[in-house]
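Possible regression after last week's pipeline update?

I re-ran a chain I had predicted before the update to compare outputs. Posting the input and the new output here so someone can diff against the archived version. Not blocking, just want to make sure nothing changed silently.
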Amino acid sequence: MSVPAPMLATSGRPPPEGADQWAVEMKWDGMRTICRTRSGRVDFYSRNLNNVTSCFPELGPAMSELGAGRDLILDGEIAAPDPATGAPSFARLQRRMHLTRPSVELRRAVPVQLFVFDLLGIDGENTMVLAYVDRRARLADLGLSGPSVQTPPYWTGISVDIMLDTAASHGLEGVVSKRIDS
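New output (post-update):
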């Protein structure tokens, strides 16, 4: 399976209250990425499918270990947390985004994290044909969680207004609503 371009969010009004066909995720203020692990190799691609692996050398070994040799295609966001608040800071991330060989000092000063929020393929199987909730269940089963990689939760059956307030109170950019059957 080749690396697909990510589906990009569009601005709009949140789904109406009681819209139980929607899941809500937090919106991370970072750089969208597709992560491909195969045969012990890990590559990260930008939303334009440019290889950006060398910009974030610390994420490759973390994903290699967590992926445990699986052939995975993952959709996510690379973010740089603000040390004071823990919230992702795009301004901080910009210090790392276009450097193909960030120094050890810069990597220490501006650490990054990968937030994985979708499983697009596993061991040659295209999972994009599955419903969102099924992909998320399979993603959760992979246990992709460590110091620099997280699989954040999603919510269903909760008020979008509550989620927007929660995002704002944690300094996050907002929320993303996804159809659970998509």
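Follow-up from reviewer: compared with the archived run. Residues 30-152 form a domain with the D-amino Acid Aminotransferase; Chain A, domain 1 fold (CATH 3.30.470.30). Marking as no regression found.
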